[in-house]
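Notes on consecutive records. When two proteins share a document, each keeps its own sequence and its own token line. Never mix them. Below: protein one.
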Amino acid sequence: MKIQAVSAALGVTVLVVGCSNEPEMAPLAADMVIYPVLAVENPECPPGETQEDYEEAVEEIFVEKELTCYVVATDRRIEVTDAEVGITEVENSTQDALLLHLGEEEAEAYSDLSAELSEVPYPDNLTLVTVDGQFFLAPTVNAHITDGQMEITGNDDPEDLHRTLTE
């Protein structure tokens, strides 16, 4: 809710109370890394294949989530240390979205990555996001993001995701 004080000519102060379209943002309080996905393999990752096996050898890792194996490029990862997180309503929808506003350095790196990924079809436009070293999301990139402000929809409950990132 937004409260604004308006001063009238007679010296009377009027409070205007209304809803603001700007969501409340909180600082990111977790270690977040964004990776471009090189391949999606079903079912699970091959036995014995670990992050250590691939990170040093070919700059790729396997991340496993719900019987899906994501092969990601570690040499193109974006380590997010400066970001804010919020929740907003999706226009013309009944669902909410998780907002992620990246800091200047991360926004520049993500702009380069999203320019490339927004031009290719699914599943080549996937990214994988880890939080505190664990799988968090695997969102598609549908547009070139130049300002570092991402709106993530279609996943788990945005409020749960927000809590994970800010507590």
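Protein two starts on the next line and is unrelated to protein one.
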Amino acid sequence: MFSFSPLDWIKENLVIIAISLMALLGGYFYGHSSGYGEAKAKGDAAIAQLRGEYDKTYAKAVNAAATKLIAEIKRGNALASELATTQQQLADVQNLLQKKVPYVTTVYKTSPAATAVPIPRAVFTRGYVRLLNTAFGADRTACVSSTTTSSNDPATEATTSAETGLCGDDLLDSGISQADLLSWAIDTGTQCQQERAQLIQLIQLETTHD
């Protein structure tokens, strides 16, 4: 009678069984290793792609910012050059006007055909000069208190009148001549025009900044 013994069969086929197990294990580890390597390669490729896209985006942003900065610098330089030209032109006009001051403040004619004669001296009171300085924002000269308590002279009474707001020395001669006043007006007018030119350039710079 035939009898089958598993233990005997295993003993007889041990080598075959061992080889089969090794083949199965080898296939498993090979497949696992191959899958991991493939996944890692795909991940590395995706990372490289993202890094490349980021580098391109960053480069574009840097180039755009650099281009805008260069444009701003050029525009600022152009405005500064234009302002310098305007200020120089104003300074040239100022010098020309100042040279003409003595000519128009020393002699005059009563008619086109008349001979030029000396111009009478004009009197500008201290109050006149004080009001002029105040109107242009200059430091206001301190008033000199009047020592007159009463007077029959209307002009003298005006110096101490609270209603008029005059100072005690407002009606005195300031010593300022026509030439002094005109020269001051030329300098002040030039300064105002230069500051106006600066303000215009600043407004243009800010309004076109974006």
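For the record: The first helix runs from residue 6 to 12.
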